[in-house]
Amino acid sequence: MITSLAGRKALVTGAGSGIGKATAALLLSEGADVAALDIDEAGLAELTGRVTSTSGRLISKQVDFLSAESTTAGVNAATAELGGLDILVNNVGAGIGRVFDDIDDEMWMKTLQLNFMSYVRTTRLTLPLLRESSYGSIVNNASDLARQPETVPVDYGASKAAVLALTKSLARAEGPTIRVNAVAPGPIWTPFWSKPGGFADDLAQLHNMEPQAAVEHEMKLRQLPLARLGTPEEVANVIVFLAGDLASFVTGSVWGVDGGSIRSII
């Protein structure tokens, strides 16, 4: 990918695993300096191991995005060390497969704090720096469930719908200085699915199969055109495209990276 991102300064939340780690790694390979933030120290350490002599500079910070205080401290320290900011990738998030009746107020608030309010806080903290950049770009990681909700997980889908509303609003408010876009991944083989007790384990019990086979079977039942899960790298490719100059006339958009899960024409 020819991105002209060498020397750009990027901050990626949730960079310790999945889509965030793949995005941080790709930005580094394109020569960008990257601040990788996550609560997962082991994941950040593994990302550090991918840095090569031709990569951009990597800064990693342990941050608990459920905490406003930890978010503020981590983001401020990371951007100070970067010496500015050109690209923000709001990616951190999680979800649990549970039906509406099983979600109490505390669970709702935890989902919204991590999947939505972390984006609000991180964006608020970094906007002054992005406004000073000649290449200001924000890419928010949403979900196909924001546009085509399923019954499970309802709180996750609602939080991601809020991310899309935030994306559209910020794109109008911050243009022409900053471009703001979102990706809406479909089913991607990340810890959301693969972790112990994750959604894949739920489907494994339902279909009496190994977890990944059960997920692939579920995709066929849903008539997903590509009939498989995506990879974090496939989403990262689109995020990095949106972050750079190749997408210089793209803002306020939602890019589906979903294997064809969204059936509407808008």
UniProtKB/TrEMBL annotation:
It holds the Pfam family adh_short_C2. Keywords: Oxidoreductase. It comes from the Bacteria. CDD domains: SDR_c. GO terms for biological process: fatty acid elongation. PANTHER family: BLL7886 PROTEIN, SHORT-CHAIN DEHYDROGENASES/REDUCTASES FAMILY MEMBER. Belongs to the short-chain dehydrogenases/reductases (SDR) family. This is Short-chain dehydrogenase. It comes from Subtercola boreus.
